[in-house]
Amino acid sequence: MSYNILSQDLLEDNSHLYKHCQRPVLHWSFRFPNILKEIKHFDADVLCLQEVQEDHYGTEIRPSLESLGYHCEYKMRTGRKPDGCAICFKHSKFSLISVNPVEFYRPDIPLLDRDNVGLVLLLQPKSPCAAFPVICIANTHLLYNPRRGDIKLTQLAMLLAEISSVAHQKDGSFCPIVMCGDFNSVPGSPLYSFIKEGKLNYKGLAIGKVSGQEQSSRGQRILSIPIWPPNLGISQNCVYEVQQVPKVEKTDSDLTQTELEKTEVLVTAEKLSSNLQHHFSLSSVYSHYFPDTGIPEVTTCHSRSAITVDYIFYSAEKEDVAEHPGAEVALVGGLKLLARLSLLTEQDLWTVNGLPNENNSSDHLPLLAKFRLEL
């Protein structure tokens, strides 16, 4: 399950988004029991939660989920922001191999001045079969600001680099990956397409067009090439770069600073490509439109908008019929999607007065997918 549960502090700071709601349904004392009831009802083995408020996490959310048999890991946003991301898993189903928090704020990089975070876990399914593969679960909540696509893409690259590091196996392949969260980007946007297609040429792209949240991008600057500075240590392929230390032999002690700088300049010039890539083959659990009508699904709905911004992506080999005629599609990492919980249309949601309402206590809907993990 991936679920943005709406932090109470953020609800109160943005009360203009909830004018349509009756006041009692906005109180945390009303909302939390409802959210917990949903979590109990769906009974997922793994929960990826966003906007988990730190004080509520400590006093109510974590104890309640632990009593339901979940082990919880939490990463709070940086810079005194009161909420963060949690990944909770049933300890009857998984053992924890590693916990890898990701902070997107970097004091040494002016571009990265926002407090968003991600969390990446490596889990081992508990099974009598010793050869069972590990699985990588990632959760994030990217920057909201529709006009800062440069920051969003960089935050995504940082998350992908961490996933690449955590999911990388000895034989050079990746273990199965599930990447969840609120990406603050709509289906078909450049950021979304980059996740699904593994490549993006961003030359000439306005920073306000990256996420597709807003139509107009008049007067906006275009993405710089490269988007992030080299000292971030992440390549255009969204992996951590091995820092190249110039090898200086004892005999070359007279190598001047100017010569070193020259070699650095050459390397930088070679890297000035506007192509981003990543090496995962990711599919979306949801198709974002209802097949019969073509009407969009929505994952969030309040006074200002009703759109899809939440996703569950998973590693699956794309079908390539031409290459293997008649052959079944092999799944890299062995994740097979079996079922998903239906989303709703904007019209459906306004018939129950939008979100949050008496039964649904966040301004987002939960996303839920059932996978088979194959050996």
From TrEMBL:
Protein name as it appears in the record: Protein angel homolog 2 isoform X5
Species whose genome carries this gene: Galeopterus variegatus (Malayan flying lemur)
SUPFAM superfamilies the UniProt entry points to: DNase I-like
Gene3D superfamilies found in the cross-reference section: Endonuclease/exonuclease/phosphatase
Highest rank taxon of the organism: Eukaryota
Occurrences of domain Endonuclease/exonuclease/phosphatase (ranges): 1-317
One family name in Pfam for this protein: Exo_endo_phos
Coiled coil regions, renumbered to chain: none
PANTHER family to which the protein is assigned, alphabetical: CARBON CATABOLITE REPRESSOR PROTEIN 4, PROTEIN ANGEL HOMOLOG 2
